[in-house]
Amino acid sequence: MVKLVNNISMEAIHDTSARARGNSGSIPVEKEIAGTFNMEGSPMFTSLIETGVSSFSVGSDEPVVLGGKGVMPSPLTYMLYGVLACYTSTVAIQCASKGIVLEELKVKGTLTYDIGPVVAGSEIPIIKKLKIEITANSDIRDIITLSRKRCPALFAIEHPIETEVLQK
């Protein structure tokens, strides 16, 4: 039977950690998603997401103030969701790795942004601030700090990453 701590498979963590240590701490991964902007109706953007175990369709709309349908979550809503899910999972993994068993782990994220530049072409920053609040049944402040360094989504936000945009 697989031992779970904080809903994290300790066997998988152990195996992945050993694999990384055997490769100078590295396990390169590439994630690819393809999607289509739909010219009519909602959702405005759709994509088939594959996990390696299953696949499912995801859709999004722009909010009404940006000319969209507003029926489905916006791309920024998914971005915030992804960051929160990634960061909270990272906290759970770090706690489990250190033998900290949690009974409760909740997160609240607030993304502050300005849509003016999207429609008016101004040069002011679009994204202003991301605030993440963690609630847990234990004092995990050290884990929260450690997780900030180890969460892939937060890393992507806090460090410039090479970005290439081209037309095919």
Written overview of the protein:
This protein has helices at 10-21, 75-97, 116-120, 141-150, 152-158, and strands spanning 4-5, 8-9, 35-37, 45-50, 55-60, 105-113, 127-136. By secondary structure, it is of the alpha+beta class. The protein folds into two domains: 38-69, no CATH class; 74-159, K homology (KH) domain (GMP Synthetase, Chain A, domain 3), CATH 3.30.300.20. Helix 2 crosses helix 4 (141-150). The mean pLDDT is 96.
Tally of DSSP β-strands: 7
Gap between N and C termini: 48 Å
CATH class assignment of the largest domain: Alpha Beta
Low-confidence stretches: none
| Helix and strand element order | EEHEEEHEHEHH
Strand content: 15-25%
Report the radius of gyration as a whole number of Å. Answer: 19 Å
- What does the main sheet amount to? 3 strands, antiparallel
Q: Going by CATH, what is the homologous superfamily of the largest domain?
A: K homology (KH) domain
Looking at the structure, the CATH topology of the largest domain is GMP Synthetase, Chain A, domain 3
| Individual helix count | 5
Order of strands across the widest beta sheet?
3-4-5
**Roughly how much helix do the residues carry, as a percent range?**
25-40%
Structure classification: alpha+beta
Can you give the mean pLDDT? 96
| CATH architecture call of the largest domain | 2-Layer Sandwich
